[in-house]
Amino acid sequence: MALTIVPLTLGGFDDLPRHIRRCVYWEVAPDGETLTDTEFDKEAWLSMLMLEWGSCGQVAIDHAVDGTERVVGVAFYAPPRSVPRVGDFPTAPVSPDAVLLTWVGSEPGLDVRVKEELVTAVCTDLVRRGVRAVEAFALLTPVGMLTEDVVAQIDCGPCGCKTPPLTDADFLEQMGFETVAPHHRFPRLRLELSEGLGWKAGVEHALEQLLAAGAAEAALRTALEGTGDAAAPVGRAGQD
């Protein structure tokens, strides 16, 4: 995958995946009103925020060998005052010196590197703008293990997202975030940006650990292939 990360522009809005263009979980207040055109609402929110505050998104673009390009990941961030959904979280409010990372995600089946590079791009932009910290309301339970009552709390409504627009807490911790407001479902995490490029060293260390873990897994897989056990599911090796 040949990947580049670029700031989101209004001109690039139509290139975003449809489910991202339509999701207004963070951008529209949950007042019970039925929305008829969430894509328009999302674009209007982004337009206003870009005009008043500046860049509020980073986009991951995959460049295929045939010359085509497609968006494979997005990160959105904004001042907490501009995000209507903030007050719904039990771990609110966001610290006054922080920008809120509302969501970072990639298309299904892609390597975690896409999200890692998106977070790095967000932090680089915020450091350049003099922001002291970035915070996020995270999801403590993996998406595949969510119960119906939890899903109901984070229902996207008319946009019909298949996965909640919340970032996994484990991923954020691997990127250097620390929990500042614990919760059994929706903890609030924080990454300090005020120490110059200190955040970058932390992120790079986290990436090195992830790469090392991937190398170890690959070595184990190679060893198993040599013994003929590679195809055995976990917990089933040696069973009939």
From TrEMBL:
In which domain of life is the source organism classified? Bacteria
Name this polypeptide is given: Acetyltransferase
Organism this protein belongs to: Tsukamurella tyrosinosolvens
